Amino acid sequence: MEKRIRVESRLVYGAVNKLTLSPNKALLKGDYLIDDYIEGKGQGQVEGKLINFGSDEFPDWDSVLKYFLI
User: Fold this and answer.
1) Overall number of domains in the chain
2) Radius of gyration of the chain (CA)
3) Contact status, residue 48 vs residue 34, Cβ threshold 8 Å
4) Rounded to an integer, what distance in angstroms lies between the CA atom of residue 43 and that of residue 24?
5) What is the pLDDT of residues 1-51, one digit of tens each?
6) Which domain holds residue 18?
């Protein structure tokens, strides 16, 4: 619930309709994975683009939003 609330408050409410939470990222299917880790829970097996939240490229939610708006 905590992650869903964070997504609702940082992104747009409609984003939660496409939100899937799982401790095993390899089970997820989609175009993007936003995660603060790049390995250890199946992130490398995700088909879509990994957006490494907290990295130099995506240090905060504003940078993630900018990526999707461009």
Assistant:
1) 1
2) 12
3) no
4) 8
5) 677 777 777 766 667 777 777 788 888 888 898 888 888 888 888 888 999
6) 2-69
